[in-house]
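Reader question, answered in our methods column.
A reader sent in the components of a multi-part assembly and asked whether the whole thing could be modeled at once rather than chain by chain. We filled in our standard form and ran it. Here is what they sent:
COMPLEX SIZE: two components
ENTRIES:
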Amino acid sequence: MTSKQKLPLLEFLRQMTLIRRFEEKAAEMYALGKIAGFCHLYIGEEAVAVGSIAAANPDDYIVTAYRDHGHALARGLEPKRVMAELFGKATGVSKGMGGSMHLFDASRNFMGGYAIVGGHIPLATGIGFAMKYQKKDQVALCFFGEGSVPSGNFHEALNLASLWRLPVVYICENNRFGMGTPVERSSAIYDIAHAARAHDMPFHHVDGMDVIDVYTQMKEIIDGVRSSKRPIFVEARTYRYMGHSMSDPAHGHYRTKAEIDEQKKRDPISTLQKRLLEAKEITPEEVAKMEREIQDIVLESVEFADKSPEPPLSALTEYVYSP
Amino acid sequence: MAHIAYREALGQAMSEEMRRDDKVFLMGEEVGFYQGAFKVSRGMLEEFGPMRVIDTPITEAGFTGAGIGAAMVGLRPIIEMMTFNFSILAMDQIINNAAKIRSMSGGQFKVPIVVRGPGGSAARLAAQHSQSLESLYCHIAGLKVIAPSVPKDAKGLLKSAIRDDNPVICFEAQALYGTMGDVPEGDYTIPIGAADVKREGRDVTLIAWSKMLLLCLRAAEQLAQQGIEAEVVDPRTLRPLDMETILNSVRKTHRAVIVEEAWPYGGVSAEISDRITHEALDILDAPIERVTGEDVPIPYAKNLEQAALPSTEKIIHAVKKAMYLE
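And here is the structure of the entire assembly that came back:
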């Protein structure tokens, strides 16, 4: 397809690989005690953030949950400042005040990672409201897991957006598990996208393991929301390879290693890489070079984070209130 | 000076701020077409239209969260809670989002939002509609909490709240909406964090806010007839507290009685008492007395509701105890 040949697939590959290597390094740093608290890795789900955010305009708003490293990197936040945030350093994107679950960057309309399941979904509705109120053309993209779809916040937020016709794209990253509980044991509807029906909201499914499908569908969806000013719900079916957070095992009581291995056959990065190699759009040497460059970025991030100072004690009270 | 009702004062504050700044809007249940459940927003839909006076479904978490999101990108929402009992449904939004976004983003985002509505008991509304929830919100760093008692303060404080860049919780009272008072002409504000001496006296300091302030003024009149001159201090803002004004009064009277409608356990009166004790123990001539609601859900029966709430009799009794007269 000619349209697909125009897609920035090498850039998608580069971004997804960066997220993968960044997350692997974060896991390593967590094991070394450099990163603490709760740390939720995005490994396996990279295509969703990369494809969706690439399809948005740079000034469209991004609101996401606590598994937010991938979205931050896809939005262009500097890897070294994201890593510094995970390390709790003053140079972090949130000045060390937020940590892994609360990455923010006002300059990139990256409106934050939030750690109460479903609690951030109304914020995206409000951003959409503000766009309508001020007659602006920006769209809000709201990412959340399928675990928040049964929550009250989700339904209240979607009802308002549909009722008031707000420019918001609600993107459910259905990775199959809310921590250790599979979707079929937490939601009465298995086909999660149908939740949008209760609010008379159009919905789409995208293959969250295929960045080309995510990007091409999301491009049309986001452009459509921008012109129609009506919200849309998207279910991206994806899979998390790691445990819910670094405190949890990847498999055990709730799923088998065989299941994870089966899912890895659809890995978004190796699938795209193979496709590009077969189409001779990239050479093995170029792949290796890309890997080396990404490795350097990740190592520099760790070095930067490690050498950065902790926040000054004055930061303890500095940000509580606006002057 | 204009002589107007408390509800009108609040309505004027909102309307004047909305004329001054087109980023200010009002959102809540029945605020528009119905003209406000307690008529605070009467006439506002007609003046400002449905894009700025927005009726919502009965989904406090949803529309409060939407307000917070709108505030993050530059608007200045006023969120009306039909009563603060319903704000409990939005506490996740208020506490986990509004109060924390500035801190956890390292100061990158501010949340200029006002959440306002009536709190406290009215007339036999029973357990779920009679609660005074100030202390729950006062507990939270990142929030400011105001609780005006008279129309002048209601208007001036609400205007300050709307102009403030932080989330402000404004406790009104159903039983105060019809009360009258003098309000200055023209634009004025009353600063958040400034207490007010509502009556001067030398013998004892009564500290109270919102509806309880009026109760204290009545008790002070009765006490005056018995030769006891009570000073009545209205903190007006509960977070941050103006301890200087409170302590100046206690330094004069050497006795303090704090009156609040809410429950005793962990109440705002306990916080004020602790701060007075810490900062001025040596000037106290008697233990600080607290008059609070009883430690029970408010009952419906008339006699039991009365028994559950502070009264002038209870205040007078506490004053006499603080003066070793009983």
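What stands out: The interface with chain A takes residues 25, 51, 56-57, 59, 61-75, 92-93, 96-97, 101-110, 112, 141-142, 144, 164-166 of chain B (CB under 8 Å). The first strand of chain B starts at residue 2 and ends at 5.
Send us your own complexes using the same form.
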